[in-house]
Amino acid sequence: MTTCEAMRPQSGFTMIELIVVLAVLGILVGTGVPLAGAVVDADRRQEVQRELTEIGTALDAYWFDRAAFPASLTATDFLGVHLHPGVGNTAVLDAFGTGQGYVYSVSAAGVATVYSRGENGVDNGVAAEQFVLQVNSAVPGTKKTWQRLRLIVEVLADHIESGGSVSGSWATVRAACGLPATFDTDGFGTAFQWTAATHTLTSAGPDRTFGSADDINL
Question: Taking 60 as the threshold, does the pLDDT of residue 176 lie above it?
Fold first, then answer.
């Protein structure tokens, strides 16, 4: 007698199923890699924007203290003093610069410019880059000038009321008022100009030239 055994179901994938699985995996990999790259670039953009903001604040503070911008972003009197360096001085390293620092320059007009090379990692010049910071010395310089003038006017008024002399140069009058030598200059590093006849103290302003429209008078 002949017996027929029941057909056993076979486990595993057919060739068609394998092809479908591989195709799906290829699609996932093909879409996942660009998405991962986009996330990394977004993180770098946020990092650059945050660091440029911090550098701008530090440059403003540096000018306020010294009436000048630092020679470089890694200068020892700037990095670690006005700007927190971060681990390995990363605060001044361009996130798109493959280990290079941000591009930094100071113009003759007193404007400090800092920018990132951007997502292509190439320095295409400030006009062609997206992440650019500019700090105009006129901002911290004017702020410091007015701060000094407000203090000077109080001390000078007391000096005049007490019968103190106001003749001679500003350095002479300043010393007679008891102010330190740091008050000889304005927030731009230019010596104040004193007119004894009218009791007028003048700052040359951002352009450091007396007689121009940006002069600041007390």
Answer: yes
